[in-house]
Design goal:
single chain, 3 helices, mainly alpha
Length: 113
């Protein structure tokens, strides 16, 4: 139960950071919080208490006693993709700062609000 609350809290903090902050770095950090919260939620939903890995397990184990490895593999892939998106977003922010000398999205030229 605590992991559901933690993932909801991470997603909520990330949404707050993306919707109400004007600094580009804080927006990217909010995006990363959302990603971490979703990954934690997926892992928590697929958790089996006392479950074992289905690889090289005992033949006497029932399928309900095994952990599904697919969500873990998907979350691992999502972490790698999220890291690449984070690196690309930060490089874009660096280029925006070099051109406009600000990271406030309300002061950027070319964006209409």
């Amino acid at each position: 139960m605590i992991f559901y609350i933690a993932s909801g809290l991470l997603i909520g903090i990330g949404l707050y950071g993306m919707l109400y902050k004007r600094n580009l770095i804080k927006i990217i950090i909010g995006l990363d919080f959302i990603e971490t919260g979703v990954n934690l939620l997926i892992i928590t939903l697929c958790y089996v208490k006392g479950g074992t890995a289905p690889i090289f397990s005992l033949p006497s184990l029932k399928p309900s006693q095994m952990v599904d490895p697919l969500p873990q593999a998907l979350v691992l892939t999502a972490i790698v993709i999220g890291l690449a998106v984070l690196a690309m977003a930060l490089s874009i922010v660096v280029r925006i700062y070099e051109k406009n000398k600000t990271m406030d999205i309300s002061k950027l030229k070319g964006l209409k609000w």
